[in-house]
Amino acid sequence: MDTSDWVAERFEEHRPHLRAVAYRMLGSLSEADDAVQEAWLRLGRADTSGVENLGGWLTTVVGRVCLDMLRSRRSRREEPLGVQTAEPIGSPEGGLDPEHEALMADSLGLALLVVLETLAPAERVAFVLHDLFAVPFDEIAPIVGRSPTAARQLASRARRRVQGGATVPDPDGARQREVVRAFLAASRGGDFDALLALLDPDVVLRADPAAVQMGASSEVRGEVAVAGTFKRRAQVAQLALVNGAVGAVWAVGGRPRVVFGFTITGGKIVEINLVGDPERLRRLDLAVLKD
Hints:
With 291 residues, the protein is α+β, with helices and mostly antiparallel strands. The protein has two domains: 3-86 and 116-165, Butyryl-CoA Dehydrogenase, subunit A, domain 3 (Up-down Bundle); 173-288, Nuclear Transport Factor 2, Chain: A, CATH 3.10.450. The protein is built from 13 helices and seven strands. Helix 6 crosses helix 8 (148-165). It is elongated and about 65 Å long. The termini are far apart.
């Protein structure tokens, strides 16, 4: 086996890990694949003869690529909404490949993704690498261009934001699906009592600016108010997987316009997030489910 074949083989061994790292940094499977591909190209241009830990070296490269992509994403947000075109919604009927299934089994729920996207790029990279993949701060520091102490502070700030803003959902996918299906049915049928039974007393509904422009309220709190908001609504919303969690999507001509993310704890809906931003929708992994 020549050197190039050996390098390619080693890279493929690390690809699932690199893809998982990139996905949790970027929240987008397609962008994660782009980041991994860029790492492969950089590997081909680099002299790695003195690298003892190729996996660690590649993780560092992916971290830098993702940081650049997050910074570029922030600059693009200054562009007017509507210039991005969402990808068609996929369907899981043909089945998912094992790597995809493994990735989505521990995926980013929409509520957590919304919180992560409030972080500065360097905070997000430091948090994901350290808290999710146990990368030491000595290795994170050169990626984010800070000292190890400053990198630790970045991760700490991110951790506080995540812990304060993301509710831990029930892990039972079948239960999630049952609750969301019942919620959509009660909403369509105008069954106010059924809606109340599915909502936590302190439930909160949040909508991003794009969804607000379509008529949603930016924030609604409490079971009565949220139930009233959804009574006889969601007429064309479809049950869907949203980044691996059960949610719903309103689509027009196969293109998503608004995605509904549900956080469910103890069989009750505690949070609903409405996302209509075309840029954010483009990055979500969506698959319509049979209702």
